[in-house]
Amino acid sequence: MKKYLFLLMAATSTNAFAAPYVGLEYGVTNMSHDYSSTFSQDNVTLNPDDSSSAFGGFVGYRFNDFGLELGYKKFESDDSRSQMLVSDKVGYTKEREWDADLDASQFTFKPVYFYNVNEKLQLKTGLGLTYTQYKFDSSANTEYENDLTDHEYTTDYVPGNSKSESALGVIASVGIEYMVIPNLALGASASYQADSVANSTSFMLSSAYYF
C-alpha cells in the first residue's frame, strides 16, 4: 500500500510541472544566401541580403525541465535601386527603378530545455529542425510622375530572376524569460538557422503564456 501511495504522489508531483504554452514573437532577421538578379542592359545587380523585421508564433508542451515546441516565422529581405532620368515628356518626372524581394516562411520543430534561475527568471534553449519556403522575385521599370497631379504610370517593365524553393534545415536557439505575472512571461532570444538554400540569424522579443 505504501508503495502505491508513493507512486501516486510522484505522478501527481510530476504532472504539476506539465503544461502547454503559446507565444508570439517579433524581432529582426538577417539572411545570407546566393539569390541575386542582374539587369545587364542597365548594369545593375540586386542582392536582397539586408536585415528585416520578422514575426511569428509558437505552441509547446512543457514537461518538467523539457518540452516540445512547434513554431512559425515570417521574414523577408529586399534590395532596390533608382535613378532619375531626363524626361522625354513635358510636365513629367522620369525615374528608372529596380527591385528584388526575398520572402521566407519558416516552420520549426524543436525539443527545448528550461533552466530556472529563480522563481521568476528562466533560461530556454532549443535544437531542432526547420522547413522553409523561399520565394524570390525581381523586376525593373520606368516610372513617369505628373508634376502637377502626381499621377504615375510605368513603362519598359523588365522581369528579372524569379524562383521558389523549399528546404529542410536545422536551428539552434537560446533565450531568457521573465515571469511578469504567474502565467505570463516576457522574453528575448537569439537563434541561428541553416539549410541548403540560406542561413539566417534572428533576434526576437517574445511573450508566452503557460497554462
TrEMBL record:
Signal peptide region: 1-18
UniProt domain Outer membrane protein beta-barrel: residue ranges: 7-193
Superkingdom to which the source organism belongs: Bacteria
UniProt xrefs under Pfam families: OMP_b-brl
Keywords associated with the record: Signal
SUPFAM superfamilies: OMPA-like
Name of protein: Peptide ABC transporter permease
